[in-house]
Design goal:
The chain is mainly α. It has helices at about 5-25, 30-55. The protein has one domain.
Length: about 60
């Protein structure tokens, strides 16, 4: 019964994703690397969206 753990997890995930996005070029000449990074981004997006839905918080599709 400690919901702050869940919000902390989502905040940490968003922070880690932000650092990844700053340092790693998603689109590259290596098709496999690009595909893997796009899947990673998609997975993070799904996790954060589902987490916010569970908390009853809406999130914009674009910023």
């Amino acid at each position: 019964m400690s919901p702050h753990h869940f919000t902390s997890y989502l905040t940490e995930l968003a922070d880690i994703y932000h650092k990844f996005y700053e340092k790693c070029r998603v689109l590259s000449d290596d098709a496999k690397l690009t595909a893997a990074r796009l899947k990673l981004i998609e997975a993070v997006m799904i996790i954060i969206k589902n987490g916010l839905d569970l908390l009853g918080v809406s999130a914009p599709e674009k910023m």
